[in-house]
């Protein structure tokens, strides 16, 4: 498997080591996100909890350190766009939006209930800060390409971040969009891929492997870095490195993540795509999460 780290040298541009203060701020953001995810998961007794815990570090680095937005003005034209291609990861995005001040933390208690603004699969018309409706996998990157192209035509320097999954790398539309992004010189587009090695039908490696991933994205005309997606300093270095390129190639950060990260009980659990968690386990999950942060 091709593995390249997001060190400044391998990235081909200079990025300063993220300060301890930035690292701690992102780690604390991720920890609070994980608590929200456990609370929302408990309210339903099941759900896409494992993926969400796995990508909390990534979303904390993006929302807590990288994205340009105004919480009080979700449609601010200069905002960076964050597109959740994987609608079933909505629980993770809601946790991030709450920490980003886009939605009230108290509203998280309504997650996936009737008439809630926080449905189990994300809907752009329901939730402030949700740019596209998810659910039909493989559509996020094509939409992101259109948005990035539109912003360029408008002379708007905002970036478009598209967050997709390893399962979506099995969708032909993803690769058509990847070609289109390079063809149109969309240096304002950053794709983030959650490589949790799992899909609904089983391990990605047995369903349909897309390796070697770095080579494949580079062959499609992108800058590509692969990192440990649960390593906060590596995430910050990687995101900074991708922003630091001055040419017009689109960029992708390939993030290997651990399902259930931070909660030992939920790491390596069977049937992790849609996790069932017993009533008594949620409190254990909280205690393990707080223990893992010490
Ligand atoms: C076009 C399309 N095909 C199939 C599905 C059904 N589906 C929902 S989630 C999922 C798994 C996709 O892989 P991934 O996002 O990597 O799964 P996870 O890591 O969350 O287990 C599938 C096939 C869908 N939502 N859209
Ligand atoms: Mg997956």
Keywords:
Rossmann fold, 294 residues, 41% helix, binds thiamine diphosphate, five-stranded parallel β-sheet, 13% strand, 11 helices, single chain, disordered N terminus, binds magnesium ion, alpha/beta
Protein model, in words:
With 294 residues, the chain is of the alpha/beta class. The protein has a single domain (20-292), classed as Rossmann fold. Helix content is 41%, strand content 13%. It contains eleven helices and nine strands. The chain has helices at 8-11, 20-44, 49-54, 56-66, 90-99, 140-154, 172-183, 204-208, 213-219, 232-244, 281-293, and strands spanning 46-47, 81-84, 160-165, 189-195, 198-199, 202-203, 223-228, 251-256, 275-276. Strands 2-3-4-8-7 form a five-stranded parallel beta sheet, sandwiched between helices. Strand 5 and strand 6 form a beta hairpin. Helix 2 (20-44) runs antiparallel to helix 11 and helix 4 (56-66) crosses helix 10. The protein is globular and about 50 Å long. The model is unreliable at 1-13 (pLDDT under 50). Magnesium ion is lined by residues 165-167, 196, 198-199.
């Amino acid at each position: 498997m091709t593995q390249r780290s997001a060190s400044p040298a391998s990235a081909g541009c200079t990025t300063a080591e993220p300060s301890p203060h930035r690292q701690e701020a992102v780690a604390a953001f991720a920890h609070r996100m994980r608590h929200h995810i456990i609370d929302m998961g408990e309210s339903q007794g099941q759900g896409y909890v494992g993926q969400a815990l796995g990508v909390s570090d990534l979303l904390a680095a993006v929302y807590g350190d990288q994205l340009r937005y105004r919480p009080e003005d979700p449609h601010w034209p200069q905002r960076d766009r964050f597109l959740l291609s994987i609608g079933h990861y909505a629980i993770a995005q809601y946790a991030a939006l709450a920490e980003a001040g886009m939605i009230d933390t108290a509203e998280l208690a309504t997650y996936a209930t009737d008439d809630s603004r926080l449905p189990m699969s994300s809907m752009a018309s329901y939730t402030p800060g949700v740019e596209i409706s998810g659910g039909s996998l493989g559509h996020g990157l094509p939409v992101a390409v259109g948005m990035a192209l539109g912003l360029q035509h408008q002379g708007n320097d905002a970036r478009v971040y598209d967050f997709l999954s390893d399962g979506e790398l099995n969708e032909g539309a993803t690769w058509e969009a990847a070609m289109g992004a390079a063809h149109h010189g969309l240096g304002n587009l950053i794709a983030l891929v959650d490589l949790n090695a799992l899909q609904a039908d089983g391990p990605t490696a047995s369903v349909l492997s897309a390796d070697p991933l770095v080579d494949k994205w580079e062959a499609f005309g992108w800058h590509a870095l692969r990192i440990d997606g649960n390593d906060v300093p590596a995430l910050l270095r990687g995101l900074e490195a991708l922003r630091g390129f001055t040419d017009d190639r689109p960029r992708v950060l390939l993030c290997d993540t651990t399902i259930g990260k931070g909660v030992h009980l939920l790491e390596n659990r069977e049937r992790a795509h849609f996790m069932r968690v017993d009533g008594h386990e949620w409190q254990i999950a909280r205690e393990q999460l707080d223990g893992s942060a010490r």
